[in-house]
Automatic annotation (TrEMBL):
It catalyses: 3-hydroxy-2-methylpropanoyl-CoA + H2O = 3-hydroxy-2-methylpropanoate + CoA + H(+). Keywords: Hydrolase, Lyase. It comes from Frankia alni (strain DSM 45986 / CECT 9034 / ACN14a). It comes from the Bacteria. The keyword Repeat does not apply. Its EC number is 3.1.2.4. GO terms for biological process: L-valine catabolic process. NCBIfam families: PRK05617.1. This is 3-hydroxyisobutyryl-CoA hydrolase.
Amino acid sequence: MGGILSVPLFLDSKGGAPMSPHAADAQPLTGSAPGSAHAGHPTGPSSGTASEPEVLVRREGPGGRLGRLTLNRPRAINALTPTMVGLLDAALRDWADDPTVAVVVLDGAGERGLCAGGDIRAIREAVLAGAPERALAFWAGEYRLNARIRRFPKPYIAIMDGIVMGGGIGVSAHGGVRIVTERSVLSMPEVGIGFIPDVGGTWLLSHAPGELGTHLALTAARIGAADAITAGLADHYLPAARLPDLLDALRRAPDPADALAAFDFTAHTPPPGHLTTDRAWIDELYRGDKVTEILAALTASPVPAATADAAEIGGKCPTSLVVTLRALRAARSMTSLEAALDQEYRLAGASLATADLVEGIRAAVVDKDRDPRWSPASLDEVDPAEVDRFFAPVDVELGLAAAQSAAAAQSAAGQSAAAPAR
C-alpha cells in the first residue's frame, strides 16, 4: 500500500468531568486538558496558554461573514473532548440561523493535523471506573454534531490538513467542502482497538465507490489526498502552502460564498494514490458478506497488496471485524446519515460491555505494547449471538433519524400552510 505516512494510529490524551447520558451540552470525561504552546499553522493560530479555549470561535472579514472554527489542542493533535464538541455544536447552531454568516471554515491548530480522533484513553478510564454512561454521553453529543455538520445550510469548509482520523473524520468528511493537502493522512482505525467505525463512518464508507469503504474499514488503512478524494471522503486538493491564499480570499470577499465558488481548485494535482488502480481487485475480493470469506479471498489472491491486507486484517479485533462488516452492509441501504449514527450508537454502547475495547485501548495507548489479547481470539470463535447483541435495540436510543423525520414533516407542514390558496 503506497503513499502512506508513518504516524501513530491512536491518540494518547486526556480530557474532561463526569456527565449524564445524553447531556445537552458536552462536558469533559475526566479532567480538563491544558492548552500548550505549539508551532503555528498555515490556516490559523495555535494554542499558547492553558487559559485558551479548546476551540477558537471567531468571525472575520467584512461584516464578520466568515465564521472560523479552529480545534485548539495541538499537543494532542486536536483530539476531541466533550468540551470541544459542545463549543462546535453551539457555534454551528448559532451560525445556521444567522444571516450575517455566509461560510464556515474548520481547521486545526498546530502542524500535525486537523484532528486525530476522540480521547480513547478517557473512554477506557470511564469504563474501568464503572461509569460507561460518561462515554455514551460523549458519543451522543459527538454524533449529534456529525449530523448537524451534514445538514448545515451554508458552505462548511473542512481543511483536512495533516492527520485526520476517527472523530476527525466526523467533524470534516460530513461537510460540504472538504479540502486535503499533500500532508493529509486519513484513517478510520477503530477495528484495531476493539471498536467500530463511528461518527458516521459506516455511512461514509458504505457509500464509497465499490468496496473501497469495506477495504478501508477492515484494514484501518491510512490514505493520502488522492485516495481520500477517490473514496469520497474529500472533494478538493490544495497544497498546504496555498491554504493562506484560500483563507485570504474568503476573508476579503464581500461574500465568502462567491469567493469560494470562484477559487480555482483545479490548478493543482495531488500526489498519486493507489485506490484507483487497486479498485478492481478490491471490489472483487471484498464483496463477501462474511469476514472469513473476504479473508480467504485475500489470502488466496496472487496480488501482493491483497495478501498484505489479509495479514493486516488478521491482527484486528475479530468481533469488531464481524460487527463492522455487518454494520457497513446495513448502512449501505439506509437513507440517511442519521439512521447510520443511530445504529453506531447502539454498536458503541454494546462495545462498552466487551473486554476488547478496554484491552485494545490498553495495547494502543496505555502500555503501548501493540499486542492486544482479543476475546475471542479468532474469527471462527466469534459468537453470532454476541454479534446480534450489538445490533439489538437499547432502552434509550439516540433517535436522530426519528428527530430528522419529524423536523422534515414539520417543515413541510409549515410550507404547506404558508402557500397561498388557489
